[in-house]
Amino acid sequence: MIRNGASKSLESNPSDDICPVCKSNRYLTPSLQFLINPECYHKMCSTCVDRIFTSGPASCPVRYCGKTLRKKGFHKAFFGDLKVERECDIRKRVGAVYNKRQDEFETLLDWNNYLENVEGLVFDLVEGGKEDKMRAEEKLRAYKERNLGEIEANKRAGLEEIEMEKRRERAEKEAARQRRLAAVREAEEEKMDVEKSRREVLEKLASGEGDAREITEMAQKVVLKKSGARRIASEAILQSNGSAKDPNLTIRGLKKREAPVAEKPYEPFGGVDLAPSRYVLQEDYDSEWLANAKKDQRHAAGGFSLHEYYARTMFEAFSGLGVFIEDEMGSKALPAVPSSIGTEAAAEASTGKIKVEHKMELDDVF
Amino acid sequence: MKFNIDDLPVLFPYPRIYPEQYAYMCDLKKTLDAGGHSVLEMPSGTGKTISLLSLIVAYQMYYPEKRKLIYCSRTMSEIEKALAELKALMKYRSDELGYVEDFRGMGLTSRKNLCLHPSVKREKSGTVVDARCRSLTAGFVKEKKDRGEDVQVCIYHDNLDLLEPHNLIPTGVWTFDGIMKYGEQHKQCPYFTARRMMSFCNVIIYSYHYLLDPKIAERVSKELSKDCIVVFDEAHNIDNVCIESLSTDITEDSLRRATRGAQNLETKISEMKESDSEKLQNEYAKLVEGLRDQDEAREEDAFMSNPALPDDLLKEAVPGNIRRAEHFVAFLKRFIEYLKTRMKVRQVISETPPSFLAHLKEYTFIEKKPLRFCAERLTSLVRTLELTNVEDYQPLQEVATFATLVATYEKGFLLILEPYESDTAEVPNPVLHFTCLDAAIAIKPVFDRFSSVIITSGTISPLEMYPKMLNFTTVVQESYPMTLARRSFLPMIVTRGSDQVHISSGFQVRNEPSVVRNYGHLLTELSKVTPDGMVVFFPSYLYMESIISMWQGMGILDEVWKYKLILVETPDAQETSLALETYRTACCNGRGAILLCVARGKVSEGIDFDHQYGRTVLCIGVPFQYTESRILKARLEFLRETYRIRENDFLSFDAMRHAAQCLGRVLRGKDDYGIMVLADRRFLKKRNQLPKWINQAILESEVNLSTDMAVGTAKKFLRGMAQPFKASDQEGISTWSLKDLEAHKEKADEEIIRALREAQENPEGKEQIGDGMQVDPDDFGIDEDDEAAMMEIDA
Ligand code: SF4
Ligand SMILES: [Zn+2]
Ligand SMILES: [Zn+2]
Predict the structure, then answer these.
(1) Is B372 in a helix, a strand, or coil?
(2) For labeling, which of A205, A316, B263, B733 is most exposed (least CB within 10 Å)?
(3) Do the Cβ atoms of A91 and B319 come within 8 Å?
(4) For residues B145-170, average pLDDT
(5) pTM of the full structure
(6) Compositional bias (Basic and acidic residues) spans (chain B) (predicted)?
(7) Minimal Cα distance from B777: which residue of A?
């Protein structure tokens, strides 16, 4: 106990309660509030901040500091330990730049190495000497310049993820609330039921029809059945809820969307390559009845191009070669099953409910 | 006595057997054959342990698989009792069979109970013994010694290394006393002998924690194979054990000490960097590779181990940003600092792990993944640094465990920050409760891993609650009635005082003088008629105090004082044990005594009041939990959401299991007798939730008594008990000789044949009709105010 007390008084050490600048303390000014400026992390009370910095930027009143601070920069510290506060601010800065995501890496090892590097950088910034700091800052700047686009993209992805998470949480909360309401309602109904049937029994008893014991027994049974049925029903609801909500909530597992592929130019032949494969079109063919056309300018005046002529002639000469009708007929007889249907069927088979009609349809295609 | 169950020959070390024991064994065998789990309720005092042991040992010896038995009990004394019974059983078996079987049975308990080291064993606290032992036996200490450095070691431990590792101790059953003596003679440590021999034992007997507490379980129990038979005895509270094993409380003080631990680590790291940076480098290299050190896994005494982590995670490499020792320590410091900041909030906060993590990430940039590795990373670091005074790092370890758990489980846990101890407190004393709401989480690995898990107790009603709460399915679920040759216990429900005013500990009426006076009157009257000892249970300390002071004012205690000595249980364990001792002395001499205690206290759980130590037990009020507790509220909510257990059902179940525990305290055998009085009108509706064997013994004429009627009945009952009663009167009814057993079997066989024949004759006719609903005649006509009163605070 004694040790406990001692450590407690140690913990609430005076520096927590006295402003290092104006020395006013918490006992006299209970509203004392400390602020810090992330330029130098020296803390001072809000009155001091008002007093010193209201009229514009001034230098930090803490001895040997002298950094120029602005009032705008002051805020309350989140952490009790200002070193950690500073570290987290640095992390924020670094994290905004080095924001790669695990799925950008090939292997886990690469990702881990990356993490370690970043951590090392942060460490240099937090604890390193002047030189380390400079170097680290330089690194950070260089990286930022080099990867501006990526950083932006990752930032957006990160925000999206957070948004998604928040939405999920909200949805869950709402669902829980609904369930709670339902439970309350259910309890209420049950109470009403009991009340009602009790009244009925009393009425029946009062009217004096039938055997008293029989009436009470009957009533008991009815109530029990009702409550049992209700319970079963609500259980069913719960189950359906459970299965229904799951797919919605696991959106997180989706693969990260890929940047859209730049649109390619339009291709009229849909990718069919018309380059001749069985011959090579020459620049020039020796033929004497074409000699005239070669020499005489007038032939070309109307747009006639010998080259086009060569191409067409050769194409016609070779067209039809290498086409085997029997083969093509044969391969056509086997219907080319689209692969997606195959997986579907496999999936169905694995669940054990193969639909026969479906198969029949496939056969009927031809 | 020797008999067969189906084809299995069972040796039972007594000449007579109770019918319920036989039924119990049959169901046990069914469970084992089917390879599933079961919940069995066996009346207290009917030889549950010996039936269990003799059947399972017979099973082990008869079938070639030799399935190992892991028998878990709650208290040290229960474990010792079980070991003694096992020893007797094995002796009987070898006498009967004519040879000694190759069999090893052993118990395990903490170092504190087993240590032989002359100075270590004198330490008072268990954690200190553990820590000191670790500093003498850790792997690196031995290495240092081998290198010729001058370090202290424990000779008892090192001697073990000279022995064959699978034969540290001869076969047979070893009680704690036995193993201590053996250890003393052979200068070997009993604790480590038991630990290391665990995988070579046929029967292991230890406490729940070795299996349920994930921090211990991984170390102690992971080598046990899948086909082990696991038994949880006295398991009526198993859900609470599960929950406690995963919950932690974090206070400002523990955070302070964790910070200190982290600072120490920091200095240690920089020291090591200067002196022996190679070690750190090695650790680093290992972590990069993502290899879990093999011998590290085997090391029997790691500083701590991972709480219930999924296996796939364990195989993954440690995340890069906590790979380096100094990075990791900074990480921990940041996390602790964050927690400290959270503790400054002056209003109650309750949040789920995901929302906690989101907030954490926003402010400290700590991601979920490294957090999950926290516990493991810390273990590795502590080992690398070769720290000996590990107990200094306990708070840090708690924080790391918390970090791992909070990052691992999204569901089933809740963080509750309570800035003030009570609603009226002025000085803040914030506690961050990280509470597990789902008992199924801790016990899941057990159900997953072992094919047969048997949950049994004297009072484990209603049976279907347990599979629901712990999320498992049973193959057998049974509650046995108690066969008695004469009515040897008298349960009564007293609802009114002699003046016909209802008595109840319900919130609105509990302090009304008429109610208190009626309770006092009941106490006085019962103390007049009861011979020897009498035990009285109150729902809570608070209520007990207030009612005692009121009784004092009314002169009731003075009246009682004439008949009995009055002793009181207090929250202080030492005071209570002194009171107990005095109570026992008083019961053995003269007029006897009254012990006033609390239904959820120590007395109600572990202490038996057999024979003259308890002739009457009086339960004043229904022992409901304190429903204003935030943790309980959260758990109730969770149970409803997840397992469809309604608040009222759970509270009432929980109250009744404690009441049943209290009642069960006085009846510890068939030759025992006692009166059980439930004094509260609300018991009238809850009697169906009592264990079958108690409920069946309540006669219809004794459920709604007034004080004077109850006293009259008690007098008559006691007069009956005073009649001579020979053991032979029980013969064939409540105890069976071999002949009776045979006859019973024959009859049962005939019964089966007849049923089969009947089924053949009219195949449709035997369909069970029934909608599967439990019919509870008292459900009808629920008294509104009564139910409302029931839910009130029971502080
Ligand atoms: S090894 Fe055994 S005897 Fe030695 S200190 Fe540890 S527990 Fe005690
Ligand atoms: Zn100031
Ligand atoms: Zn400054």
Answers:
(1) helix
(2) A316
(3) no
(4) 87
(5) 0.78
(6) 758-769
(7) A220
A187 band by pLDDT with thresholds 50, 70 and 90: confident
**Confidence class for position B545, pLDDT limits 50, 70, 90:** very high
Burial (0-12, 13-18, 19+ Cβ within 10 Å), A35: buried
Amino acid at B389: N
**Ligand 3: centre distance to CA B250 (Å):** 35
Which pair of tokens denotes residue A55?
A: 């009229």
Q: Which residue has the tokens 């025992």?
A: B672
Alpha carbon dihedral B269, B271, B276, B277, in 10-degree steps, equals: 50
Distances, alpha carbon A205 to alpha carbons A195, A196, A200, A301, B55, in Å: 15, 14, 8, 119, 57
Asked if B363 and A78 come within 8 Å (Cβ–Cβ), the reply is yes
CATH class of B246-293+305-437: mainly alpha
- Kindly report, residue by residue over B740-783, the tens digit of the pLDDT: 888 888 888 888 888 888 887 765 544 444 444 444 444 444 44
> Does the model's ipTM exceed the 0.90 cut?
no
Q: Is B570 exposed, middle or buried (0-12, 13-18, 19+ CB in 10 A)?
A: middle
pLDDT for residue B780: 40
Contacting residues of A for B779, CB less than 8 Å apart: 220, 223-224, 227
Instruction: Give chain B positions within 8 Å (CB) of A166.
Output: 358
Please provide the average confidence, as pLDDT, over all residues in chain A: 74
List, as ranges, residues 288-317 from A with C-beta within 8 Å of B: none
Tokens of B392: 């200094």
C-alpha Rg value of chain B to the nearest Å: 29
CB atoms within 10 A of CB A108: 14
**How many residues are given for chain B?**
795
- For the cut 80, the answer to whether the pLDDT of residue A362 exceeds it is no
A131-145: pLDDT as tens digits: 888 998 998 899 888
B343 close to B255: Cβ distance less than 8 angstroms = yes
Buried-state track B3-35, b at ≥16 Cβ within 10 A, e below 16: bebeebebbbbeebbbbbbbbbbbbbbbbbeee
Residue A69 and residue A53 in contact, taking contact as beta carbons nearer than 8 Å: yes
The answer for residues whose C-beta is within 8 angstroms of residue B444's C-beta and 6 or more apart is: B471
Mean pLDDT across B16-38: 92
HEC readout, B275-308: HHHHHHHHHHHHHHHCCCCHHHHHCCCCCCCCCC
The answer to whether residue A177 neighbours chain B at the CB level (below 8 Å) is no
Strands, DSSP E only, in B545-661? Answer: 565-568, 593-598, 616-620
Band (pLDDT 50/70/90 cuts) for residue B306 is very low
Among left, alpha and beta (phi > 0; psi -120 to 50; other), residue B500 is left
Number of H helices, E strands in chain A: 13, 4
What band does A4 get if pLDDT is binned at 50, 70 and 90? very low
Cα–Cα dist B138/B144, whole Å: 10
Alpha-helical segments (H) within A14-81: 46-53
Extract the tokens encoding A262: 């730049």
The reply to whether ligand 1 has any atom less than 6 angstroms from the CB of B191 is yes
How high is the pLDDT of residue A345? Answer: 36
Q: What DSSP designation does B382 have?
A: H
In chain B, domain spans: 246-293+305-437, 489-725
CB count in 10 Å sphere of residue B238: 23
Q: Which range, B382-396, B475-489, B599-613, has the best average confidence (pLDDT)?
A: B475-489
pLDDT digits (tens, 9 = 90+) for B40-58: 999 887 889 999 999 999 9
Domain over B489-725 is classified CATH 3.40.50.300:
yes
Using DSSP's 3-state secondary structure scheme, residue A223 falls into helix
Provide the pairing of β-strand B104-107 with B203-207: parallel
Ligand 1 centroid from CA A56, angstroms: 70
Please give the structure tokens belonging to residue B43.
């009346």
Q: What is the pLDDT of residue B299?
A: 46
Q: Is the peptide bond before B462 cis (omega within 30 degrees of 0)?
A: yes
